[in-house]
Specification:
182 residues; SDR_fam; 12% strand; NAD(P)-bd_dom_sf; VLCFA-Steroid_DH; alpha/beta; extended; Rossmann fold
Length: 182
Amino acid sequence: MAAFCLYSAYTVGSTALSWSWRLFKTFLRPGRNLFKRYQGGYVLVTLATFGLGLEYAMQFAAKGFNLVLVARNQEKLDAVKRKFKEEFGDIDIKLIVFDFDKPYTAEGYQPLKDALDQIEDISVLINNVGVFKADYFKELDFCMIKTILKVNLVPQTIMTKLLLAKLLERSKKQGKRTAKPK
């Protein structure tokens, strides 16, 4: 009987401790100071003129980050830049016009690569570009499925590839460890 009581107390105690730690990590522990970690760098946000991309850009701008905004419409990018300059003041905002639906070859991505090569310190990539069609899959035509796959898979991979060297170099300068393939 004493062994059962000890086992029960151990189980209840370890479960309570485990849940307490999870609650602390989730709700009470202070967040990381991204501004201190990536100070002076740029945050690149794709599809930054509306929706989640705009909100990500706004949140980073509010914290004082410099931005690189990528979208396919120059007028919308200019409007976002004006709004952010008025609202958040002295942050540097670079704009890149690029349509992720058009290119599908290495040559198609060359203008984007050239524009990104001119920006020294990109610290964070928000890979937000994508297409969504609110319809049943069985009702989508082949062309729409092809567009969804082309825009939702290829640009994220290419953007990561284009920026990986810069991101790894920045983490080396900071002395951060990065995962390496075996």
